[in-house]
Amino acid sequence: MGDTSPHDHDVRPSDVAAVRARLAADRAETLARAAALSREFDGIVAANALVAVDDEHDPEGGSTAFERAHVAALMARAREHLEELDRALERLERGQYGQCEGCCATIPPERLEIRPAATTCVRCARSDPPRPPS
User: How far apart are the first and last CA of the chain?
Assistant: First the structure.
């Protein structure tokens, strides 16, 4: 019998630096994406400020409003992802990274490779009802 159980969620010390680096790289990418989206949003707003746009009656107004809403939604998702990454870094520091919040089992490394900020194993993620947007 091996020494590891399904509840052995400790990340090996040699892996902590690699996980931290992967989370930090993801965080840096997300910050850059959020900054680019913010500039794009500001550009849309500035362009609309130069023209008297009546979204209801202007043929371009609908697409402008959609574009603005779309970029705002992408910015919100980037902020959410930053929060997820920050919580993952906190879990890493507490020694709880890779532990499923649903069943306390170890989250498979393959899942963490794809979703480094994952908080649940695949089984719990499938059974978790979708959360309403905040």
Answer: 45
